[in-house]
Amino acid sequence: MTILEIRDLSKSYRSVKAVKKLTLSIEQGQAYGLLGPNGSGKTTTLSILTGILRQDTGAYSWFGDAPTPRQRTKIGSLIETPHFYPYLNLEKNLKIICKIKEMGFEDIDRVLRETKLDDRRKSRFKTLSLGMKQRLGIAAALLGDPDVLVLDEPTNGLDPEGIAEVRETILLQVEKGITLILASHILSEVEKICSHVAILKKGDLLASGSVKDILTEEEVVEFSCSENPKLRKLLEPSEIVSELREENGLLVAALKPGKSIEDLNRFAFDKGFVISHLASRKKSLEAQFLELVKDQTP
Asked: Which residue from 147, 154, 182, 241 could staple onto 253, CB 3.0 to 4.6 Å apart?
């Protein structure tokens, strides 16, 4: 079942085009990451989808229907920083959220337990660490047991311990089968949490698909022989490499899926070349991400 369908969504702030004709489809049970550097349009997109902002052009639908206020009861969201009354304790703050959502208080125990804040329920909000404040924001979003959880940079500004705590809270919901839409500029967090990803830059969609397909660790091989130019000429149109360049006197090749360093060595040998240097190195996920979002202009 398609949970969210986005079609040619656009939003501008005067001369700044924050989102440019974004088209995406998110299925039930997916953990979908919107990944991109600051200013890529992630928060604007989520703000439109949760009814905070209105798009300039384009459309989106939740659960197969045009957006309505009733649908929001199925969607829990935390956009940017959570805001609570600092002098009230966690339980009282959540009761206020329940009243806003026009629901009873019976779900408060569950969300405090799932976010591991049950033992701090009588603590004032101002006494919480940043990580705990983020977890309380997630707890508020989970009130009413929504079908979809929308989170905007939930680990932003946290120390490693806080990041791990928030990640654990989110993964618990993913394991329960909730549909997650997570915006983040941290590649490793998207990789650890999400099954699918859309990479954004300055409002443009650069790539989308499963994390396995988009953010795979591609094998890169460096090698050389006495006749590098001749070997390169033969390799470039072959079915072995997807990219080939020269670097500090070495040939550097990205192997096509299913091809190995042994295939490259055998190809060279069959063509009469003896490789004198051959080493494998992985192309890191971070390097691939930076390549996708770097400026393409010279």
From this structure: 241
3-class secondary-structure state, position 271: coil
8 Å CB contact between 112 and 121: yes
- Residue ending a domain, choose from 185, 212, 239: 212
Tens-place pLDDT, residues 197-242: 999 999 999 888 888 777 666 678 899 999 999 999 999 999 999 8
Q: How far, in Å, CA of 87 to CA of 296, rounded? A: 50
Domain assignment of residue 265, given as a range: 218-293
Provide the β-strand partners of residue 147: none
Question: Can you give the pTM of this predicted structure?
Answer: 0.78
Specify whether 167 is located in the same domain as 234: no
Question: What pLDDT was estimated at residue 248?
Answer: 81
Closest CA to 132 of 194, 171, 82: 82
Q: What is the side-by-side order of every strand in the sheet holding 57-62?
A: 16-27, 2-13, 57-62
